[in-house]
Amino acid sequence: MLSYSLPTEALSHCAQPVKQIIPLTKKTEPKEPQRTVGFFQLFRYATCCEVFLMVIGLLCSAIHGIALPLMCVVFGDMTDNFVQSGQQYFTNLTSINDLILELNAYYFVGIGCAVLLLGTFQVMLFLLTATKQTKRIREKYFHAILHQQMAWFDTHQIGVLNVRMTDDINTINEGLGDKICVFVQFFCTFLTGLIIGFVFGWKLTLVILAISPLLAGSAAVWSKILATLTSKELSAYAKAGAVAEEILVAIRTVVAFNGQKKAVEKYENNLEDAKNYGIKKAITTNVSMGLTQFVIFGAYALAFWYGTKLSVDEPENYTIGKTITVFFSVMIGAFSLGQGAPNLEAIAKARGAAYEVYKTIDQVPRPIDSSSKEGHKPDHVRGDIEFKDIHFNYPSRKEVKILQGVNLTVPRGKTIALVGASGCGKSTTIQLLQRFYDPDLGQITLDGHDIRTLNVKWLRENIGIVSQEPVLFGTTIAENIRYGKADATDEDIERAVKEANAYDFIAKLPDKLNTMVGERGAQLSGGQKQRIAIARALVKNPKILLLDEATSALDTQSESIVQAALDKARAGRTTIMIAHRLSTIRTADVIAGFSNGQVVEQGTHRELMAKKGVYYSLVMQQVLPPPGCIPNANPSPVLYSHALEGENGDLGGNSIHRVSLRRKSTKKKPKKSKKEKKEDESNLPDVPLSRILAMNKPEWPYLLFGVLASLVGGGVYPCVAILFAKIIGVFAEIDPEVKRQKTLMFSLLFLLIGGVAFVTYFIKGFMFGKSGELLTMRLRKQVFNAILRQEIGWFDDHENAVGVLTTRLASDASLVKGATGARLGLLTNCICTLTIAIVVAFVFCWQLTLLILACVPFLIGANFIQMRAMAGHASKDQGALEQSGKISTETVENFKTVVALTREDVFFYKFMDSLERPYKNGLVKAPIYGLTFALSQAIPYMVNAAIFRFGAWLIAHCYTQYENVFLVFSVIIFAAMNIGESSSFAPDFGKAKTAAARIIKLLEKDPEIDIYSEEGKKPSDFAGNIEFRGIHFAYPTRQNVKVLQGLNVSVGPGQTLALVGESGCGKSTSVQLLERFYNPAEGQVLVDGQDAKTLNLAWLRSQLGLVSQEPILFDCTITENIQYGDNSRVVSQAEIEEAAKKANIHDFIMGLPEKYNTSVGDKGTQMSGGQKQRIAIARALVRQPKILLLDEATSALDTESEKIVQQALDDARLGRTCIVIAHRLSTIHNADKIAVIQNGQVAEQGTHTELMAKEGAYFALVNAQVNH
């Protein structure tokens, strides 16, 4: 009879939250008490129809809750009949009892059928409504994020938003689902139990209730502690997750500076806290479960002892049947509250997760809301812009004044250029015009209207922007351009592409406009990306054009043509240009010089040159020697106008996203077919249990003690069952005294068993908790280590995108934990229980045992079906939601671009489409899961009916005694319950196997280029002789595009080699091959005459100092960022300051409030492009490399800094071999050797003078820069 299987059930329910710990839910401030939404608030997104369905579901669960106490009544009645048959063993009344027993059996069947129906509906209705609500919440949350203002993003980490989008909303889904109806079911069981108890025997009920507060109280305290520990554990892991994400995004920087070791240490330090909370949690859980057991068995003892006393004192009111009915009704009632607790906990977690999510959705009013319909929409735009006394500082850094009274007028159709040092507020001005922020004081007007009175979306739609960092999305070139104008025709796109001079390179691509650009446009070079971004701005034919360093990432040839295209595009449009490279703005109608957040001078080029102020000094610094001139000869001011025209290539680096040295790791490809996906899954090795357990080997002492405790624990239930049957047997005794003595003895034995149960639970909890958390931490560290060990080509594969890898780190290791210690304990426990149970049962009544064993598969089957239903959908859901995760991540990370293009809705609908599949799956899954849940609930009633019907027949025909029937029944049912409980862990096991397989596959993968390998030579003296010999190369993810096709070039020790050529011709690629990010397909990279492959990798990289075009900084202080340059030792503060002085950033740092301890922000966002670049230069100089690699190193700097940093780099180059990549030829005319690369080969090489004399490719490039 299932009623007293209830301790096991209660405990299996209690155990559930323990298993399902999926890390990564971020709570913002772990110190504060967790804030939650109200219970009814959780359901605020349900429609009336859904509320109605939930009410029906609740009614079904309420009626379902009555079933178990009802069964107690039937069972008690039946027990009385059995006992009577025992006392009348030698009389002829058995036939009457037989009929009554038969009737009882039919009651069981009736209850079972009702349960089947009600159970199906209660779960199905709730899962259906939860699926619908969750989809709605995801959509609303994503919509809310898309319409936040920019200042909100400055204070919210992107990583945290993505976690909310996935994990927190999954938690809400859990809370909205069947947890509530299951709780109501338990609550009704509690009420009915109490009512039945008082009706059938109020004295005994009161005694048992005296114990109930203990149970209920302990359950409440425990769930509170557990909830606190869970949230602490999750926020502790979230920190580690953020560290992992930051490192994986910057993987190229990490490997270039040999930072893997530091990265793993940083990650590991953050894991420590999560491990400690996890252990505390496992112990807490098990101690509370042990205590619960102890109290339950204490209650058994008390109830039977007192029940016997009452049956002797008041035989007319208390028979054994009534005692059992009362005892189990009240106990089940008390327990049901305990069993409901985990369900309430899921709801509490959901309320916690919903707080931040709903808060974001509700964030109104948003002063700048692009979805708002409010605001004036003029019929046409003339394009008169005026900035009146603008004061502004960024909300996230109130103390730093950016603009301090800017006054500026831009007449319609005119071009105004903003010039000045990095960080002086030029880009900020443009952001204010787009209303990313509102000024603190002053106003900006468009055609006389304050832009705050205009409709935000309308305003942005009339502005075309080409920014310093062109962001492309992971789709086709055509789609990227169409983001500029949703209804653009193919002709419009083609026109824009031609205007932006992108037509030729696109025509050469295999899929032309339908070529996928990769995540963030990683498959294209910087110049190519920039031209597509220009096409995107031009396609909507805007009245106002903002060019924030629009041509900086282009090589000379493209630059002059694109510049001409932009000049054409400017005609008739109001244009604001920002440039460090003054040649591009000479033709502007007005040039405004910025300094310290103010406009200090305005005028045309000639007027400002005559003034000899800020602009004049900038121009004089940028003069390039004319062709054939001796390098470094002092330029005469008379030449300034020519020089200026040719000046090309500054600020390539604030076009932060050129391919360069960090060809972005997370590349996206077209979606794969299901078949391919399956093949990927089947690629995973099959992992036997022994292999998974072997992962836990270092913790074997813990496991051993845990298993021993489980072995002892396995004997607990059979013992309880035997005692239970014996006590019922005692009631057949006629002598009251014997009855009393026997009951007392058995009651004390119950207490003893309770003590044993408590001890075994505690030992199990501690041992398995500790071993599981140690394993999780070790695996996370190993997996992270293995990820960092892979070659860069591995990261280029879209299956190893940063998002996918961080999710794996979060969940895979903690899933494996579920398959080791705790599972081993369960298996031991089950085997022990089952063995004892079957042996005992066969000894006492073999006929009934056979029948029960025949029914056991049904009981196990019931649990199994339920488990399969859940597990089957888990992987499907995950895969489908990954797609929406990718869309949300890409959108949020490139939020500025999405907003500037006013394409929030496009991405929103894309996101909604990606939710369709998991949503439909959810709807299909609900009825299946409902039915399986109901089956698992109803089968036990049917089995009970069969057993007692047959038991009655056996007694009636004198094959056995009633006591034996009870003994056999209880022993086997307890065992079956135990097994049922363990199989409920199986979904974990399925996932754990897959997770373990993924981990093992990764740990066993030997990368082609292994940074951890100690092999290879480490020459003691290193001259710095570099040669590329016959190099052929294509990127692993694009084998059909040949980048290098027979590159031959060398540079001697201490010499400087400059590589020049068009974007995408293979300049940066050659530097990546020297860094050994990739191996060439053919040919050799020789270092001091030795093949780079034969040298120790870490040693080789430690000789190279890399300054790339897109500097990636880590979210820590400036000091730590510069120290990162040399990870092999502790870099002193003096060295850091020395490097900073050389990179011309020292004075700027000293001007900051926190000086060197200033945090640079996530990915360095608190710094301007030029500041980031100078910190990156200091980072490279601090390691004192033998070879310096400068990939557009000064391109992100304004003229003044550029000149000084160029001087610093020239000093740094002395005595070092140096490879420089530059579009701006002024920076390389004094190189020892200049190589022009075309189509992956060297077209010509020599010094500046030699190449100018040749009048070949280089001559043409220089001329293009002088005469455009």
UniProtKB/TrEMBL annotation:
The ABC transporter domain, residue ranges: 385-621, 1026-1264
Residue stretches of biased makeup (Basic residues): 659-675
PROSITE patterns reported for this sequence: ABC_TM1F, ABC_TRANSPORTER_1, ABC_TRANSPORTER_2
Gene Ontology annotations for the cellular component aspect, listed alphabetically: mitochondrial inner membrane; plasma membrane
Region of interest called Disordered, as start-end residue ranges on this chain: 650-683
Intracellular or extracellular location(s): Cell membrane
Membrane topology: Multi-pass membrane protein
GO biological process: cell differentiation; oligopeptide export from mitochondrion
Catalyzed reaction equations: daunorubicin(in) + ATP + H2O = daunorubicin(out) + ADP + phosphate + H(+)
InterPro entries xref list: AAA+_ATPase, ABC1_TM_dom, ABC1_TM_sf, ABC_transporter-like_ATP-bd, ABC_transporter-like_CS, P-loop_NTPase, Type_1_exporter
Protein role: Energy-dependent efflux transporter responsible for decreased drug accumulation in multidrug-resistant cells. Specifically present in limbal stem cells, where it plays a key role in corneal development and repair.
Similarity-based family: Belongs to the ABC transporter superfamily. ABCB family. Multidrug resistance exporter (TC 3.A.1.201) subfamily.
Name of the protein this chain belongs to: ATP-binding cassette sub-family B member 5
Gene: ABCB5
